[in-house]
Specification:
The chain is an alpha+beta fold. It contains 8 helices and 8 strands, in the order βαβαβαβααββαββαα. The chain has 3 domains: 105 residues, Alpha-Beta Plaits; 86 residues, Alpha-Beta Plaits (2-Layer Sandwich), CATH 3.30.70; 41 residues. Strands 1, 2, 3, 4, 5, 6, 7 and 8 form an 8-stranded antiparallel β-sheet that branches. α1 crosses α3.
């Protein structure tokens, strides 16, 4: 199913309501306006372009269960002000719609020489707030952003479109991500839902993990690698 919304936060609130209704769809994906237009231009799927956001929803299991869950989710979407909800007529159309999420990054990457994607994850009850916050941060730093993600587990992918040769804009993107990660932590979320920490997010790890967890991580590292030969200095300084 594809449900379209006039406001991004309405889509986010719909996700929270679906989960609160104890429905666990196998797919619950979010695309904002920028991503929708890029995907449609790239993949020609037939996505609606007159909306601010859309949800891609899929349920599976016994036919009776699928029918019941689909009807409940459609009702929830309508209760939260969706503009339109479309159910795939057959497997071919379903596969075509599902490809919208898979092509999101590739589609966005066509707009600018450099595409910087991250994954900030928040409690599902905070998705509406986080969607608005990412948009506000992009406006604050005068940046172009496309946001999509696995909303079923609160995992968002703010994707900034830039040119790495523009050093001033790259600096603003670093500041924007710092704001986004701090807000995710404040909301009880995490600085990574699936991509891991790595060098780029190394400086945010202490804020997320806290002193006790950082100490334990270092102690485990020292036990497994007492000489500090594995990726020395990448996350922790050599022993």
């Amino acid at each position: 199913m594809v449900a379209t919304f006039e406001q991004m936060d309405r889509a986010a609130e719909t996700v929270s309501a679906i989960i609160a209704a104890q429905i666990i769809p196998c797919t619950l994906e979010f695309l904002d306006r920028t991503t929708i237009h890029c995907v449609e231009d790239f993949a020609k799927i037939g996505l609606p372009l007159d909306c601010e956001a859309l949800l891609l929803i899929e349920t599976d299991g016994h036919p009776a269960v699928v029918k019941e869950e689909a009807e409940k989710m459609e009702a929830i979407c309508r209760e939260h002000g969706c503009m339109e909800i479309r159910v795939a007529k057959d497997d071919t159309e379903a596969a075509k719609l599902a490809s919208a999420r898979r092509s999101a990054f590739s589609a966005l990457a066509r707009l600018s020489p450099t595409t910087i994607l991250e994954d900030a994850t928040v409690p599902r009850s905070e998705l509406g707030h986080m969607i608005r916050y990412v948009a506000a941060v992009a406006k604050k730093y005068q940046l172009k952003v496309g946001t999509f993600g696995h909303m079923g587990d609160g995992n968002l992918h703010p994707t900034f479109l830039t040119d790495e040769r523009n050093t001033d804009e790259m600096h603003r993107i670093e500041e924007a991500f710092e704001d986004i990660f701090k807000e995710a932590i404040r909301l009880g979320g995490t600085i990574t839902g699936e991509h891991g920490i790595g060098i780029a997010k190394k400086k945010f790890l202490p804020d997320f993990a806290g002193q006790t967890q950082m100490r334990i991580l270092k102690e485990v590292r020292n036990v497994l690698d007492p000489k500090g030969t594995l990726n020395p200095g990448k996350i922790f300084d050599p022993v």
